[in-house]
Amino acid sequence: MALFGVCTGAIGYVLCDSEFQMKGISAYFWVFLYLVAIVSEMTYAKHMITGINFESPIWGSVFYTNVLSTVPIASLAVVSGELRQLPHAEQPGSVGIVMLAACCMLGVCMNWSGWNCRSNISAASYSLLGVACKLNSVLLNVLIWDKHATPIGVMWLILCLVCSAFYQQAPLREKTNPCHEIYAKIGRNIV
Fold first, then answer.
1. Which residues contact 2 (CB under 8 A, 6 or more apart)?
2. Domain carrying residue 20
3. FRET label pair with 3: which of 100, 103, 110, 132, CA 20 to 30 Å apart?
4. Residue 14 pLDDT
């Protein structure tokens, strides 16, 4: 029921959106692409990491995913031509270096808190939590710009947030041998 409420709130928000009213479903192409990417990434990442035994599960996941990300980032640097511009780049001052270090630390802290949360809840719960936290971004946009959510749209988002708070992971099934279940149903005992 909680997921149904989230879907209802999301549909209500979209129907109130002026871009959707002008352009139809094509206004949400990037939203759908983001949704598919983020849900796939969160589910696959949890599946991928659960098969690896780290000495420190949270820090191991943080460092592992950060190391894995260096290959795509380096590829983007090569393709975009950033490496050719590196010798001509202006050297940052001490303030720039402090800001870079602070951003790196905050990134690692954010990654750690994400993996810590992922280790304690299901992939669906984590995805729902991440999407529900977008409400703060929408509310900030409403305060700054005038081309965002209407008051009715914000109410639909609040419905999403409330329903997200009531979501509970389904209990895990016990792993049993299917043959035992079949024989138990027909009244035979297996030794």
1. 163, 164, 166, 167, 168
2. 2-185
3. 110
4. 84
CA 86 to chain centroid, in Å, comes to: 32
Domains of the chain: total: 1
Q: How many residues does the chain have?
A: 191
User: Which residues lie closer than 8 Å to 161 by C-beta, 6 or more apart?
Assistant: 132, 135
Average pLDDT over residues 34-59: 78
Determine the straight-line distance between the first and last CA of the chain, rounded to whole angstroms: 42
The reported pLDDT for the residue numbered 90 is 83
Single-letter code of the amino acid located at 39: V
Q: How confident is the model at residue 191, as a pLDDT?
A: 46
In a domain, 190, yes or no: no
Is residue 59 one of the residues assigned to a domain? yes
* Segment 123-152 mean pLDDT: 74
Contact call for residues 129 and 167 (beta carbons, < 8 A)? no
